[in-house]
Automatic annotation (TrEMBL):
Lineage, opening ranks: Bacteria, Bacillati, Bacillota, Bacilli, Bacillales
Protein name, entry field: Cell wall elongation regulator TseB-like domain-containing protein
The keyword Metal-binding appears for this protein: no
Keyword Transmembrane helix: yes
Cell wall elongation regulator TseB-like domain residues: 42-86
PROSITE patterns: PROKAR_LIPOPROTEIN
Amino acid sequence: MRRSRWLFWSFWVIIILILSCFTYGVFLYNDLASAKTAGYDETKKQILENTSITNIDKIEQFNGAASYHVIFGENKDDEKKLIFYPLKGNEKDLTTIDQHEIMPKKEVLGQWNEQCKDCNLVNIVPALVDEKVLWEVTYENNSNQYIIDYLDIHDGTRYEQYRFNRTFK
């Protein structure tokens, strides 16, 4: 009798612990996912109210010396635009580019894939470095280096590159 009672309570304690861990994991995931897109709604509102953009296709984030929301949108004349919206400061100095002037992301990916066949792509995002508009290509090579490559957004030529060696395995 005593042993079955101990098993009964142990079983329920384990079930409660598992459910608690699962619930905590769900809340943590949701919190991290919402933090990743924090401020997108406000940026969207400001862009639609204060620029000629009438439709926003997507928003990404670039973090460099300064952080930007990168807006892919179009105006009333169906011209596709790329806008860098700075996250700091009250006065927003926007950088705007016509998307037809830039090298498409698929071409950048194809060019990168030819140069680095055994690499693992992490991300490709438009970047603004030293007032120059670039593609930031982040990847890991087969030597276990983490690489950030900045390519000209118009023709794909390399602007600068950072390589980080993995310290711990």
